[in-house]
Amino acid sequence: MRGFVSFVGAGPGDLGLMTEKGIQSLRKADVVLYDRLANPRLLRNTKADCEFIYCGKLPKRHVIRQELINQSLIDYALQGLHVVRLKGGDPSVFGRVGEEAEALEDAGVQYEIIPGVTSSVAAASYAGIPVTHREYSTSFTIRTGHYCLGKEHGETLQQKNGDTIAYYMGIGNLEANCQSLINDGLSPDTKVAVIEWATTGKQRVVEGTLLTINDVVNQENIQNPAMTIIGDVVSLRKKLAWFDNKPFCGKRLLIANGPFTDNEIEQYFLHLGAEAYTFPTLFTKTSALSNEEVNLIMTAEKLLFTSTESVNVMIDAFLEIGLDVRDLPRNIYCTSEKTKHDLKLKGLQADRVGKIDSDMLVVGDSFVGDKDCVQTNPHIKTHRLVSDERFYEVDQRMLEETSWHTVVFPDCAAVDWFIKEAQAIGFSFHKLSFAYIDPSVKEYAKNYGFTKLDEDVQTEIDHWYSIEHNKQTV
What we know:
Layout: E1 4-9, H1 20-28, E2 31-35, E3 51-56, H2 66-78, E4 82-87, H3 97-107, E5 110-114, H4 119-126, E6 140-144, E7 164-168, H5 174-183, E8 191-196, E9 204-209, H6 213-220, E10 226-230, H7 237-240, E11 252-256, H8 264-271, E12 275-279, E13 282-286, H9 291-299, E14 302-305, H10 308-320, E15 331-334, H11 337-345, E16 351-352, E17 360-363, H12 371-376, E18 379-380, E19 383-387, H13 392-401, E20 406-409, H14 412-424, E21 433-436, H15 441-446, H16 455-473
Parallel strand pairs: 1-4, 1-5, 2-3, 2-4, 6-7, 11-12, 11-20, 14-15, 14-17, 15-16, 17-18, 20-21
Antiparallel strand pairs: 7-10, 8-9, 8-10, 13-19
Helix pairs in contact: 2-3
């Protein structure tokens, strides 16, 4: 059986700008070859056995040569696999999709090209700069900041045609490109904006003119990836810079992952303009219940569920042997509001507890709130969390490439996981401020050297928690 290759545009960085068709392709993928500019959070949409291959693509420093990428796409497809080539922005706009698709065509491999939101338009929009405007710009030109192979160096009036010009990958040649435009007749006072890490919480925007922008970029240490927008429309940014006004724009948060971490908190802070990343990447390994364990559950006086996963494993076991959840003991308890809410959706009433009684049968993974008691209580393990080794390189790169400000600890187990995995990849975390969700975490985190509370983040978390709590108790 011959395989198939999907070239997928990952969009400019904001997860919400990824297309639904692109997400569907990732869900079917057996192998994903991804570039640096593709948001690595998108890889969470893949199957548990999907293989990841990082292709790098830093300017002038490619991890894998283009020829090897082409051959890898062919080789994996000829093994009968569904391959996704994940590229930042739109793969057809300076994404080398033409070269890679040609290689597949020559090898007789079937493929598709799934467009993405192109980075120039998205970057300008998130910086408050419309690329066209009736009073300022009636045309728009996109260009690479590098010279094209086979083309003479230098520019012509036809090449720069357009009231608004966007340069991709132009930091290295910024001064030369600006001078060339001046030589071709543009005013040295033409407005310029350079947008770093556009559409993400790391976005920074600097402004200048063709004559001054290079000095501004150097002074502010703007690095790739960065988009350069040139033209009178840049003046609209002063009035339309909506993304800059998000309350946490520029804030960089790590969300410590653990057995009780609510993934929605990452999305919540991303929506507020922050750069938020959940670390480490974990996945759940479930264990099927034996008949003896099912009988223990049925005859227990009190049941304590430690997580949603423990509830799901138990219900699957009941359905497998034809039992009804209405046959469960009446005294049911849980350790979080989320688990309580999920039990309610399944028709089961439960009380949330912070301490385990000695006569409770614990169903699930470990319960951080009362470790000593778990060791003496009867305990049925339904699952366990393990580190997802496929994300080791992704997590390491995400932690190293960004200057993080704060870590958010949902619970004590998340503190343990964070410290263990951060130490494993050599990430220094002792200077981070912290915030927490469960009040018991505050002192627990301090015992590990986290002493500076981020008051702004903590206030927002308290607000978020009250909203989520009200949703779950309705």
